[in-house]
Amino acid sequence: MLKEISCPDCHWHRLVGTAEKLRLLHQVGMLRRSENPDAALIEELFQRSSRKLTCDECGRVGLRIDYPRDEEEDWGDGRVCEQCRRTIPQERLEALPDTKICIACQQKDEEGVDDTMPDFCPKCGEIMMQGTSRGGGLTRYRLRCPRCG
Questions:
Q1: Contact of 136 with 128, CB cutoff 8 Å
Q2: Phi, psi of 140, rounded to the nearest 5 degrees
Q3: With 80 as the cut, is the pLDDT of residue 133 above it?
Q4: Strands, sheet with 3-6, edge to edge from the N-terminal-most edge strand
Q5: 40-44 contact pairs (CB < 8 A, 24+)
């Protein structure tokens, strides 16, 4: 089950699947290495790990863990950017009522920068991890699924 981790200070966020939850639990020392831990145990430990998780952007310790939000659930907060999940300023909504992304993400799109969504495995849906392979004296970077290999 996908969960969204987010920083209350800088509004950084990321979706995490089961493999990423396991990696984060190992990183904060809440789960020892085991072959196949129970899914319910992973979910419970991950929920309890929120005070130990660190923001990738600002380094804050203590993150929020929640279900990924849909646009319909964002009542009263104005409209949320589809890419960065930050609230779109009211001035932008007044000028462009149909916009679904904030000005920062709009600029990234126009410049061709796409760093907002992780790649997911087409077989199992886990977040792909970047790995290296060496051969012929060169280091090559490739995406691989932590579950499928």
A1: no
A2: -110, 140
A3: no
A4: 13-16, 3-6, 64-66
A5: 42/18, 43/1
